[in-house]
Amino acid sequence: MIELKNVSFSYNSNIEVLSNINLNINKNESIGIIGANGVGKSTLLKLLVGLELGYTGEILIDDMKVEKKKLSEIRQKIGYVFQDSDSQLFMPTIYEDVAFAPKNYGFSEEEVQNRTIEALKNVGIEDLKDKPIYHLSGGQKKLASIATVLSMKPDILIFDEPTIALDPRNRRKFIEVLNSLSGTKIVASHDLDLIYDTCKKTILISDGKIIKNGLTKEILNDKELLENNGLELPLSLIKR
Amino acid sequence: MNKIEDAIYQVHYIDNNSNNNNILNKIHPLVKLIISVIYILFLTSINKYNLTITLAMSIYLIVVSIIGDLSIKNCIKRLKIVLFFLIIIGIANPILDRQVVTFIGIIPITTGMISALTLILKGIFAIISSYFLIVTTGVENICYALKKLHIPNILITIFMLIYRYIIVLLKEVQKIWIAYSLRAPKQKGIHFKAWGSMIGSLMIRSIDKAEVIYQAMELRVFSPDNFFMKNQKIDRTSIIYFMAGLLLLLIIRFIPIFDLIGNVFVH
After folding, report:
1. Which residues on A lie below 8 Å from B209 (Cβ)?
2. How many domains does chain A contain in total?
3. A72-100: per-residue pLDDT in tens?
4. Does residue A224 sit within a domain?
5. Alpha-carbon gap, residue B186 to B174, rounded angstroms
6. pLDDT of amino acid A218
7. Helix (H, G, I), strand (E, B), or coil: what is residue B24?
């Protein structure tokens, strides 16, 4: 479903942010991308949706190469939830924000309404649909952000540092919602407990390279591997 | 609430108010836009010494405020900075144009005074009418009306994004201001030595934030060419509003109502 072949990327020609990345993600897999700050996790996600295009190598989404002329089709398949919900939500009310993408796709009024309500129900905030964005709490904003991409009915969901600024209850709620969603899920985070709770497979990145690609349980229990790459064991796995 | 919070609140107020369920909000955006444009055109076409016709143009605003349940007083309060500039612009007229036309008691009334007052009133009325249009229609619907008038998509998009980015800019100003004031509690305002770096920082942060928001829009297939506009039909109420509005504007612009009323009392 997602295939990266020898992908390298740099923001300027001198420093490579990602180097020779090879990766295959199959349909309905839940993948965690972990790594310390600044190792290239967010950049990798941006390459998948074509927010950055100056890469070398090949990125295929459902056999479509990520390039400018295919972006509309690719972005219909992928829902990208930003790290900062305030950047994701720009319309006056939740309903209008969630309806933004279906309207842009030119669906009928009825279809737009159905998709919007369904997306809001999926994350459990249909009762907030008419609420202005600036009245929402951090947790509600995160759920609304997810709803904005669910209304596109994407095959792939991408989350960039989704639990930042969420309190424990909202974090738990987010994990429940995430686990209830179907389709391929890619979660980039250094919240390793989140990855442990939501992803079967994990990719460890360090200095723009894939260090390890395997089962989450194995990678997140490998203390030495994590510490060598600027991470620590998940809190839930530390014996007290 | 500080001034920046108040400004953010005002922008949100416009969004909230445009979603209200009153008669004026339900009128088709194109109708409201055309009537507002005609009003402003009529207003600007009034001779600079014709104070009575200018005053009569306020009738339209009073009618709109009653139908739309809008407060002119609140509106003037919100627009006081703009009003200040209007007064500055008009203030030169009495100095340059000193021909006396009449006296009130012993105070000579000059053509400059009349033209200054007319100019200020015209400005105030034009701004209030534009404000009423935005508050009862919402920016997205105004964009829709502009699209119906075949205004190029790129201009409509720029108009909409500027409006959306005002909040981004204000929020960044607020963050910088809070960070500064917490570390300079004894200072009133921002020291001029910090202005340069703060404005630079504000610009970079705002551009960065605006870019991320635009990316979020792009990821949901936004482009100026396919920007959604729900098709709205012009219903009977909107047609009646258009006819009545146009009639009212023609009457107050071309019939000197206040002169006629004044003549009744004089005779």
Report:
1. 87
2. 1
3. 889 889 999 998 888 888 887 899 889 98
4. no
5. 18
6. 94
7. helix
